[in-house]
Amino acid sequence: MAQLTTPVRFPLSLLIVLSKFTCSYWLTRILVVSANLTLSTLSKAITAAGSTASYAFTNIEPVDDTNGGQPGGNIRTGYLFDPSVLRLRSPNPGTATSANEVLPGPKLKFNPGLIDPTNAAWVDSRKPLVAEWEFLDGSGHFFTINVHFASKGGSSSLHGDARPPVNGGVD
Length: 171
Hints:
Elements lengths: L1 H4 L9 E7 L14 H13 L7 E4 L16 E6 L4 E3 L13 E2 L3 E2 L4 E2 L14 E7 L5 E6 L25
Antiparallel strand pairs: 1-3, 2-3, 4-8, 5-6, 7-8, 8-9
């Protein structure tokens, strides 16, 4: 937690990109893919550790066991953001199987939404999450793409016994 809470004490931590987190109930395997409890617990822990921000969150719930990782973990990408400064622009969340598009403007068909989630490139992988944000003071807007290319599952420590180290996401 210290690795996460120390940087967010700075006033520029308006947006935190989360490259992997699990659903709230993965240990019980009750087929609930929501991560609301996980993300609200993380947000509260950051605040309790001394952050000046109180974070809101967004993500797209996956289809059960389609994103790789721990069985039932339903690992996915998401965002924590400071709602006193930043918000999703014209929020219209997509689903686990709906492909996002850039529309004239530019703007997103789904905000947030997944990039081509049924493409074979993302089988057993976290699907890329795209979002459009705007500053509450009207000073501008921007897009983010949250991508987690490869799991490091099966990797050894860089300082472990295996030489050379095993890099499960590449080897």
